[in-house]
Amino acid sequence: MESNQQHNRHEADQEFQAALEQLEDILIESETEDEAIPDIFTSNANAVEPSEDITDADLAAWEDAVADIEQYLEGRTKSN
To answer: Among 73, 65, 67, 63, which Cα is nearest to 31's?
Structure first.
């Protein structure tokens, strides 16, 4: 019984690790796309610029989340 439970936990851990890696890939890909997108607000004088505070706050939250995930992954790697 304990062997089955341990096996299930191991599978769940692997799935979680894969999901974290996918999230990290998505975030890295998103950062790359953001850098490649031209600033449309400078080319259109009538456009309303988005609030920099909201954008900066969102970016900071994502960066914090990525840092937390990376720290978790490093801890898991060191534990194994």
So the answer is: 63
| CA dist., res. 70 & res. 52, Å (int) | 26
Count Cα atoms within 13 angstroms, Cβ side, for 73.
16
pLDDT in tens, 43-55: 554 555 555 556 6
The SS3 call for residue 28 is helix
Instruction: Tabulate helix, strand, coil % of the chain (nearest 5).
Output: 85, 0, 15
Residue 80 CA, distance from chain mean position: 23
Q: Which two tokens stand for residue 69?
A: 């995930």
Q: How many residues does the chain have?
A: 80
Mean pLDDT of the chain: 75
Show the tokens assigned to 35: 């850098």
What is the reported pTM?
A: 0.40
